Amino acid sequence: MEKLRPLKGTQSLYGEAADRFAHVVATFERVRRLYGFGRVEVPMFEMTGVFARTMGETSDVVSKEMWTFESRSEGSVTLRPEFTAGIARAFLSEGWKQYAPMKVATHGAAFRYERPQKGRYRQFHQLDAEVIGSADPMADVELLCFGAQLLEELGIEGVRLKLNTLGDSESRDNWRAALIEHFAAHRSELSEDSQERLEKNPLRILDSKDPRDRPFADSAPTMQLSAEAEDFFGQVKAGLDAAGVAYELDPHLVRGLDYYRHTAFEFVTDQLGAQGTVLAGGRYDGLIEQLGGPHTPAVGWAAGIERLSMLLDHDAKDAIEAAILPMGEEARTYAIRAAQVLREAGIAAEIFWSGKMAKRMSRADAAGAGAALIIGEDEVAAGTVQYKDLRTGEQRQLTPEDTIDPITDLAAEAMLAEWEEGESR
Ligand code: ATP
Ligand code: MG
Known about the structure:
The protein has 425 residues and is an alpha+beta fold.
């Protein structure tokens, strides 16, 4: 029989890696609520045109990274390589226009046919945030603040926000012409890819990682902004200053996809080598029109969960609050009852079923428990547990119900200590 193996570029996670992943998602879910972004869910696959039309035929994603196949009855379909296009499609086909401006967030799997390497997978996972139907630069600012606070709360160090403007259509068209002229003068010295991009999408040459392109990309003319685009960018910068979010201006920052206008940004770190971008996005005022909808200004970002997980500098395992240690056959069902009492009171309790007492105690300690409930024959007979405060070593006989208050207090203390540690980090 053929030996079954995981598909290339997919991951199965357990233990620390899975805990980190879950911590990134939980932090995202918490922070998005602080910023008033509602949840949105979109399908994992769409008609191929949803991505091909919005992301641009010449983008890397559409030209070589999509997982596309013929379906039996719906023609060509594609596994989502990102969220924005699907959300924009839903905005139109679900009639979400009535809710505009819409602040939405989602997360889940995305698929790209890439050569797998560290931090680059074929199935990866993204966090995504979008504001659809707002032309206000303050929407960009709020969205950027959300991204900055997320990275901050994850405790990721050495992150810098790079910021640029791609101008409005007018400034962009002029710039495009200037770039074509600049690159055409060095056509034969450019990489094959860039020679091909030259007329179709010269902006993407600026983004090239090929060393043959870098000198010409670095010496390329920068955009001359129209007064309107200048004003928009000025408001974005002023908003970020007011919120205390630091940024670096990077006139060569472009986003790989065609649909961007005005604000473009990337949060980068030098900790991941070539995969240094952890959160990226910008304003895409042209996208919904490209799907056949009305002009609808919008701005958004996406972040790779795997890359964020790799950067967490601390253990992300959820600590338990109480350890229950039954001794002997009779204590087993009593332990289940005690655990139920605690869990229904909102306390994370784990039963350590077997092994030497000292060994079980050290496992309870490693799991973060602040209290232990030891149950022997005497406790079962008396309807109590031997309650032990693992910080002070103090012991008492209590009913399972009476342990709820002291355990809750211990858990609150532990949470405060963790928060203070996070503040000083
Ligand atoms: P890169 O330059 O690394 O290829 P990208 O510009 O293609 O990134 P985006 O389309 O902006 O990436 O996607 C947003 C984020 O999703 C990236 O910053 C990254 O964290 C993550 N990401 C993109 N592709 C992959 C992948 N194949 N594996 C893991 N994470 C990815
Ligand atoms: Mg890519």
